[in-house]
Write a structure and sequence with these properties.
The termini are far apart. The chain has one domain: Alpha-Beta Barrel (TIM Barrel). The protein has eleven helices and nine strands. It has about 300 residues and is an alpha/beta fold. Strands 3-4-5-6-7-8-9 form a seven-stranded parallel beta sheet. Strands 1-2 form a two-stranded antiparallel ribbon. The longest helix is centred in the last third of the chain and has 18 residues. It is globular.
Length: about 300
Amino acid sequence: MTNYIIIMRSSATIPAFHQTIPVDQVGVEERVARLNKRSIKKESKLQGLKLALSMIDHTTLEGKDSDGKVIQLCSKARTPYSPMPHLPAVAAVCVYPNRVATAKKALRGTSVKVASVATAFPGGMARLKDKLEDTRYAMEQGADEIDMVISRGEFLQGNYSYVFDEIAAVKEACGEAHLKVILETGELETYENVRKASDIAMYAGADFIKTSTGKIQPAATQPVTMVMLEAIRDFYRHTGQMVGMKPAGSIRKAKEALQYLVLVKETLGAAWLTPDRFRFGASSLTNDLLMQIVKQETGVYQSINYFSND
């Protein structure tokens, strides 16, 4: 377990993050490779595929987004494949703040949450007051969850208190909504930075930590996810608080999704194998999961053309 130096700031007891926590890159990558060799039997595979489906955040974050596109996305979120109405709905639909009200109306009466990006997504290059206004606007529109981005430039300059305070302020602005903190790991350069950013986010109040915006490559990778899962494990041991995890971007195949679930199970345990604790930010993953589920249940592959694109 990591031992942190405790300091006092703004009447709160928080850890000091000036120390670097070493990450064994070879060890992390070897463990991921070893876990990827696990074989999953047919019944467990079908359960895993349906579980992964229930963990997806369907997302549309384009300049050309319209109410019609959001409504269609919500329709698929509620019923991913109409010939199989028994399949679970996805976990959430994620949109820009100005589309939250549309999504909220389209999902009324369902279990699907409405998430909204905020804080000058995806670059995060704005004043804190503007980021907080962005967050509050999304909340006023009815968002259940807020996905914020950290200030990577400040982090890479070593301004860790700035990043901590910014996250804490956004968390306060979220009220009862869950806060997912996006690290944009593709810009953090090292595993040690990913670990440090994960710790800062969790101690500042994140309900989830998330790898990526999906706008930068590399996005989610399994080794980076492993580093973040281990940070969550250590945070839980230190505080007793359960923080969720969301890899986002570049996850397109059902096989990869199952591999991520194995990483979660072996690192954090079964308590994290729920949409309340683990999400996939990967809309394009949905159709491959559906294809594999149909194959498992019927014995026949369905053409990709039988599944809607959004």
